[in-house]
Each structure stands twice: as structure tokens, then as C-alpha cells.
Amino acid sequence: MNKRISQVALVALVLLASLILATTYWQTWASAGLAARQDNEIQRVAQFTIDRGLILASNGKTVLAKNVKKKVNGQTLYFRTYPTKGLASQVVGYSTQSRARSGIEAAQNSYLTGSNADLSTIFDTVGDRIKGTTVKGNSLELTIRPGAQWLAQHLLEGKCGAAVVMNPKTGAVYVMASSPGFDPNLIEKTNGYTQVQNTKSPCPPEPASPLLNRATQGLFPPGSTFKTITAAAALDDGVYKPDSTFYDPGYCTEYGKQVKNALDQSGPESFGTVNMVEAFQHSINAVFCNIGKSLGAKRILAEAKKFGFYSTPPLETPSDARSPSGLYANGKLFDPTTDKGFSKVDPGRLAFGQEKMLTTPLQMAMVASAIANKGVIMRPTLIKQVTSPGGSVIRKLKPHVYKVATKPATAGALKNMMVEVVQAGTGTAAQIPGVVVAGKTGTAETCACNTVYDAWFIFFAPAENPTVAGAVVVELQKDGFGGAVAAPIAKQLMQALLPTASNG
Amino acid sequence: MTARNRELGYLVAVAALTGLGFASVYIARQAVIGWSSLTYAAFFMGLYLVAHVVARVTVPNADPYLLPMTGFLTAVGLTEIYRLGPSDAFKQGLWVVIGVAAFALTLVVLRRDYRILESYKYLFGVGAIALLFLPRLPGLGETVNGARLWIHVGGLQLQPGELSKIFLIVFLAGYLREKREVLAQGRLKDLGPVLAIWAATMLVLVATNDLGSALLYFGIFIAMLYIATARLWYVFLGLGLFVAGGLVADRSIPHVAERITNWLHPFSSTKVYCPINGQMELRQDCQSYQLVKSLYSIANGGFGGTGLGKGTFTTTGGQALIPDVKTDFIYSALAQELGLIGVSALLLVFMVFVARGMKVALRVDDGFSKLLAAGLTFGFALQTFTIVGGIVRLIPLTGITLPFVSYGGSSVVANFILLALLLLVSHRANSVS
Fold first, then answer.
1. Model ipTM?
2. Can you give the CATH number for the domain in which A82 is found?
3. What is the pTM of this model?
4. Which residue has the higher pLDDT, B33 or A481?
5. B208 at interface of A, judged by CB pairs closer than 8 A
6. Are A135 and A50 in contact (CB under 8 A)?
């Protein structure tokens, strides 16, 4: 019998050995795939065992996100709380059990959980794991200035809109406000998410969409603020000069029809003979319409691309929370130079920022920033520094050039034109005593009704050595002209930021 | 060194390991448990010392590795059960005490000559069947997760199938030794008993709704039949019959069909409502929930494991992630906390146990003892394969225990009796030579 016993023994041992093989499969090859599966709670729970890093405003004191410790079955878990209850809520986002993460909480999760590939972080977290102590994440200090951010949110309260202010030399974003906002602490509460989503809209028929970061995701027709790009194209080519003169008949002929100048231009209905500076200063559509027709849509779009249109602007938020600016048809970005339907884009209307052109406030802040910084766009950034749990700085904001939009001379000429807008043009409401402010208004048609507009103002200051540049948009304002609605908000933001902006 | 002294040495090593295990659970979870946990290790050592002394007196020449390996397996199980729920570990500790008592009793009663069992083989055969059908009795039996494997006696929940397995092996050892020549001729008329046992196994399958038990009993039968008769075609015939029976069951028994479907297609991506912990919840992998969560647990262990006491078995809200983790799924808990390296070591201990058990069968000189030792060892191996194989998706998942490791009284007691029988055979083998 012994031979058979040996054979049966062999079978038994092979069966058991196959268990080791199968376990090896699950714990090595299949492991990563299983960890990535959506319903794998172990991975979700694991995230809550990490003492997530803090999110602070630029002063290093205002806490935007921190943890509360809770014991669940003897396991220490860390849940998020947002002490400001809504300061820069769309930027900071949330990290909850019930919902996927959003904002910085989502995009910078690896820093916050200490799982980034930084050598010192790896050293720290591996040490923590070996010692069996809680893994601590890195803390983020944002570039957001809490005072100005509060002010922006306050000024936009009861409206739909957004404001972005950045340092044109470093790209540091000081203000990124989107209204209406929300209290991120609600997301985790029972029915809280629904409550947030059901926020009453201050701008019907548009939904309130408080979770939407209008500053980076909101797409608005830029209106006359887009004239900066048309002007940049005209000047960069050298075809036109600031003192080139144009005749303004008070309308522009489109498809054989007269399109009258917009209501928001300052001064008479028809200016007669003007130069480019005056046309810009008073935002005369007829002049830009004709400049646009002579440049062609292709040229204008090429210029827009140099300013960053048609690319998703860089920022430390999730990429799906940032939209590229450009021409949109049926909710989709299209590029007539490559896609079909080029002939349908009317260069005259495009020149003054209508014609399916939609932009984000961040993109328009980048336009202002480019002109402020001699034609160079610095990469916008929200993170001032990343600090390890031990207190050492593992990443610090380093300014990077994102794009070169125009020649320095063009930027200089545009700067003068924008200064004229504020001094004696459509944007006088943004004047600040003792500071030379540069700006451009925009009043974009949102419908054929000619009564509700998106009010824009893009700006930078001080003109000679700019430290702040930005864009403000207020949605669907009845008779809301950029100069009257958006420029005063921009003025207050500049005032809040200018005295200390050089510290930034 | 004598066999028993060697055994004592290994037991001390196991006791030290147990102490380390409990200490690491304590360190990882001191928030919820106290220093008293370490007394488990001392208690454990004491218990196995008793078992050792009984073995020293009754079976001095028996294999010195089997008892320490059992100690190791129970310690690993108890440590993990303790980590998952300290109050369960106390109950399991009591069951180990009862198990050691059963072990001692078996050794003492059968110390003269265990072969007396052979004369009662038919009694054991009938007993095995009776035990299997106990859960079918109304008022006594209970359906857990669709399978009828449990009975309620007083406040206790028992799985008579565990003991039935040993009875069956004793019966088969006696029966096959007697009939092996006849069966080896392979005449059609002698196939009667083979077919009868196949039918009985299928009846077990129908009665208990449990594919795992059926596989276990039939596998033991086939292995012992092959050892006794040396007829390989019995094996193929048996396997063929089993597969056929399984296919029929797949068609006709919903519970079995569900298990097989879950085995083949555990992962789904659409969410449906399914009852989890008594509540309707929107889930992926509804039917295969347990298997999938268990695989996540194993995967999370990776190579080195999370460390004892550091695995994740509950949600952030405190609900259990894997239902029945301490009984059927103790292996996936261990795989998460000890990692590949830890559970491979555990399975290697199982393999060494099987190798030692088979060695006993090889060394002993009479047919009954050979069949008994080989049958018990193969049963032990096949039970391990059935549950762990189900967990790692090699075969359809069935709810049986991992010998000595899982939470569950009947299993611990039955396996201690199994160990006692093996030691008795081993003692005889070593004494004769």
C-alpha cells in the first residue's frame, strides 16, 4: 500500500502547494488591480487612517481643512473638517467618506496623505509604518489670501460669478472665488450633499451649481475683454499701431446688416474718426469688428491660443475642474482651424468676444497677467509651499513661465490702452487714488434679449510695476455693464491686495 | 533526545511565538484591549503542557512534530480570532480546552490498542451518516448561508459534520481493509458499495446543500479506495461521477448553482440592491460579496502583510467588511495581516503536518492503521484545500473550517480527536519497529 500512500501524499501536498501559488497570485499580480476597484472599501478606509495634512491659507494661520480624530472599533480614523465653513470651498474641495474627493483635496491627495514620491516623505512614512505610528501627511500652504478671498466672496454674495486675482510675476493665485459657494462640512452630513446641490440660484434660469468652480470651470462669453486679444493680434503683426486711425460709423456691417455698437461703450453712439487707443478705451465694437474682419478669425484664434486658449490652464486642482477656453458649439470645444465649419465663424463678432467664444475667469486673469508681465504668462499656482509633518519645506513655489503671449512692445502698448480705459474710458469705476490701474471692461450678451449680460472686468495694478492682475465676472446681470458691476468689485479686491501684494 | 523531549522543545518555541503574536496584537490595538491579553499565551502554554504530559504517558513513541504543529495552528487561529473579537477568543479558548480534553480522553481510552475501533466499523459508518443528517431534523437543525450544517443543542451551535468526517474515515479504514481484495478485482457486482457511497455523498450534498462537505467526503473515500485497491480507474470513475453529480446539483440546487456562478464570475461592475447585514444596500458583487471582499482583504496584505492587528476589517462606519471572517474566512484575515510570507508559512505547516501524517501511514505495518492514518491525513489536507481553495478562487467557495485555525468548537474538538488518532497510530508504528 505504501506506494499508493506516497502517491496520495503527493496529491495532498500538491493541492496544498497550489494554495500557496494561488495566494501568491492574489497578493502580487492581482493585488494592484483589486486595490483599484471601486468597491474596495479597504482602500477607502486606509485613506482615513492617515493623519491627512492641513490645508492653510497663505498667512499660514487660517486653517482651511484639518482633521478630527475618531475611534472606530479601536482603529483611529481621521475625518476632515473645514473650520472656515466655506472659504475658497471650490478650490479646497472636500474629502469625505460618502463622496469622492474634490478640489485640492482630490488633486493633492498624494501630498496630503504623504504618499507622494518625495524622498523625505517616503523616508518619513516608511518610518511611521515600521514604527507602527500613524502616517502623517504633508501640509499645504495655499497662495490664497484669506482677507481678499473673504472680500471677494462677500462682494459676489447673492450673485453668480467669479473672481480670480493672481500675481502676474509669480503666477501665485491670491483670490479664486466662485459664487454661490458652499459649506464643505455639509457634504458628509445626512442629506447635506442634496442640500448643497439644491442651493437656490441667485441667477435664474442658470442653476446655482455651488460645487462648480466658476473661476476655472465656468464658461462665459468674454465680451469686450476679448478685445485685448484682438488688439494684441493687430499690434503683434505690426499691421496696426496704437495711433492707427479708424472711422467709426456707429455700426459694423455683418452679413449685410448693421450691427450697432454696444450699449456699454462710453461716449456718443458714433465716435467718427478715432485711433486704436481711443477705440479700446471706449470699447467701440464697430472698430474692432472691422479690425477683426481684416485680421480674419484664424489670426485672432491663433493669438488667443498664444494666451492659453484651447488648452486647459495649469493649476493644482483636478483637471476635470478646469475647462479650456475657446469656441464652443453644443457644449463642446471646437477649433475651426482644424475642425470643419471654419467659414461659420464670423471674425467681426469674434473680435469683440461674442460668436461662440467662451472663456473661464482664470483664462481672462491670465490674459490680464500676460499684459501686466510684458507679454509673459506665469504658470498660475495655488500652492505656496508643502511642509512635511516634521516642519521642513519639501516644495516651495517657484515661478515658471507658462506661455509667451505677445512681444513686450505689444504688451506695453496694450498696458497704456488699458490704463486709458480706467482713467477716462469704460472702466473709471476701478480707479484707485494714488495707484495707476489698468483694466478692460466687458459686457457680454448672453441671449438675444439685450437686457441681461455677463459683466466682466479684467485688470492689473500698479500699471508701472504690477503685483496683482485678475478678472471678475458677474453672471446674468440685468443691464449689468462690466464697468458698472464688475469694475467696482475689482477695485476693492485690488485695494485689499495692493499694500501687501509685494510680500507675496 | 527522545521524541517527547523534542516535542516539549518545539512546544516551548510555539509558546514563545504565541506570546509574540499576542504581544503584537496588544501593541497594535492597545486602545481596545488590555495587558491581560498576554495571559492567553501563558494559558495556552499550560494547556499544551497538559496535552504533552498525556502524550508522554500514553503514546511516548509517537511523532514529536504533530502536537507542536497543532499548537502552532491553534495559536495562529486564536491570535487572529482575538484580534478580530476578543470575546470570541475567550470562547474559542474554552473550545481548545474541550479539544485538549477530547484529545486526552481519546489517548487514554485507546492507549492499549486503538485497532479495537475496527470491530465497530459499521457502527461508525451508521454514526457518520446519522451525524450528517442531524441538521436535517426539524427543531434541531439550522440553515446558515443557505447550507444546513448546524444543529442547536442548548446554547451551543454545533457542526456534526466535523465529527462525522472522522467516523467515516474509521469506517472506511475498517471496511476497505476487509474488502480490498474483492474490490481490487473490479467486478461489476462488487461496485455496489462504491456506488452506494457515491449515492450517500450525493445525498449529503442534497441534504446539506453544501458542495464542500460533499467534495470532502467523496475525496476522502476515493483516496482511501485507491490506497486500498490500487485501481486508478476507480479514481477516474469516482471523479467522473462526482463531476456529473455536481453538474446535476448545479442545475437543480439553487444554492449550489449560485456558488458555482459566483466562483466563475465573482466580479461585476453594476450595482444592485442586496441584503447585507440585514439591510438592503446598493452594492457591486452582490452574490459574490463575501468572496470579493475576502479577495480584497488578501490583496491588501501583499507580500509582507499589514502586520497583526493592523489589517482593515471594518468600514469607516464600523461595519464588518467580510461576513463570517473569523470562521470561514480566517484565512483571508490572516493573509491580510501576515501577508504572503505569513500565510505561505502557515500553509507550509499544514504541508509538514500532512507529510508527517502520511509518514505515519507509511511506517505502520497493518492495513487498518495505514488506511486510518492516510485517510485522516488526507481528510485534513483536503479540508484545508477545500476552504482555502474556495477563498483563493481555485474551486467554488464553501463554508467549512480551516482545521485548528478557524473559529468554531466542533471543528477544534474533531480535529483534536483526529490528532489523537494519528498519534496513536504513530506510537504503534514507532513501537513495533
1. 0.93
2. 3.90.1310.10
3. 0.72
4. A481
5. no
6. yes
